[in-house]
Amino acid sequence: MFVLMSQGFFPPTFLVLLYSNSKIIYICRNPMDMFISLWLFTAKLRDNNLESLLLDEVFDQIFHGIYANGPFFDHVLGYWKASQENPINILFLKYKDLKKDINTHLQNLAIFLGVPFTYDGKKQGVVKKLKEVEVNKKGIHISGVPHKTLFRKGETGDWSNYLTPSMVERLEKLIQQKLDNSGLAFKLSSRTSKDIVSA
């Protein structure tokens, strides 16, 4: 089983071909929240001797598809399309939906993995914030990054505290263009933005 976030490394064709019998869970954040999350996370990892990453410079790179793991929209749409073609092996989830109704999505996830919750499991509850699990408070990831660095607020819509109206407008147009006719849509969680819906 693989659990991937929209900042992940592997294109869908790689995983589907390499692990055709595996279950893949892909969790996607809306592009605006993903961008801010990535920008803040990358800033935490930078050497203190290096110049800080300016928001507008990083925005322009992401906007033009310059991203360490390939263009964001290619990655997300690749998994979206793969999940539509192979729903038995690929589950596509949106982070905001998980936040809104975690219990239902965890039950669906358990069914997808072939291990549905028992009545007792549902009654006891299964949700615990990962940030509060002891292993995530201490220790270091295999990449050398402290576990606690991997967690921030986990809020949706926080991008509205960082992006300028001009950035929002540019990104909204890009999202609309990239998602057009894909069936994938995002609710962007802010009064300053319209929801992006794809036909």
TrEMBL record:
Transmembrane segments: none annotated. It comes from the Eukaryota. The keyword Metal-binding does not apply. One of its GO terms (molecular function) is sulfotransferase activity. Its EC number is 2.8.2.-. Keywords: Transferase. It holds the Pfam family Sulfotransfer_1. It is an enzyme of class 2 (transferase). InterPro entries: P-loop_NTPase (IPR027417), Sulfotransferase_dom (IPR000863). Residues 18-183 form the Sulfotransferase domain. Gene3D superfamilies: P-loop containing nucleotide triphosphate hydrolases. Belongs to the sulfotransferase 1 family. This is Sulfotransferase. It comes from Gossypium australe.
